[in-house]
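Mods, move this if it's the wrong board.
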Amino acid sequence: MKLSLSLNNKITLSHRILALITFLLIAIGAQSAYAQAGWNFDNQGDIRLRKNWLRLGLAKLRADFQIGPGVIIEDFDRNNRALFSNADGELAILDDGSIYSGWAYSPSVVAADRFNQVMENDTVSFDPFRAVHRSMPIQLILQGWYDRYRIGGGIGFERFGMNPYEISELELRSSTVRASRLRYFFTAGATWLQYGQLGFATDIQMGSMSWLGDHQGSSGFYINFGFPVEWHFSEYLRAYLRPSIEFNSYATFVGNEDRISAFDFSQTGIFLTFGISFNNPEIPLCRKKACQARKKHTHTNRAYRAQPFYKIQNPGIGQQPPNTEKLRRRP
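Not the wrong board. Structure tokens:
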């Protein structure tokens, strides 16, 4: 038996509508959004400040770590194939004269004399044939930002807890495995509303998934629409919750040189992700013990921060009461 993989992508009308909504929210960000409050080197009068170009470049890169649970609703396109079961209650499916078990992850032919056909009736229906899975993706993202916009890419590892397909009325279920998959994706987004330290953003992730371990599904395209709610501890450090909805599809294939049979699946995922984001400060922290500045300032021809990266950099009156000696030891 020859096992082969192929891409199976399905873009539906609902995907296009969500893509349009995300694009419009990103575009709205051009009208009302938050701009990073980096040091302005070009507005210091007659002072010519030294620029650290490496710091300035790194300050435009944003590194994100994301983790969070998800629920994935998976639909199997049965395509009127007959279902069979054995004495142990295991479901199998008929395709082109052969009966397959494990069709959702690694199809294999089983002996026909061990299985009997399962029939639909008034109380038992096979369609929609659906399973609900659990997921826990972990992702690392690197993106550049300008003003309110961000664009970049990332990689992720997803632990995938597969639940079986079931006919609960007959106490029948398919065989299943625990699986993992890798994600590689492009991302873009924008902050479209900022209220104090609270920000609202929209972003999109598009990429490919590759199954690992015993799961023999094809690599497939996916698209994820996210709506992060961000808390800006400072202009360099943010934490956020990112609710998102995701669509993807894949297939498992089995056959020989003369024929190839495909079992097609589509997935809709709902995730709630916690994320933390950091970008390198564009100017260093002031280490002068005699300096009492609490905002960004200059000494001779260099610019410095007065606050550690995780605090508001230019506090107002009454914000962050100073403890200068302690702060000078912080990064």
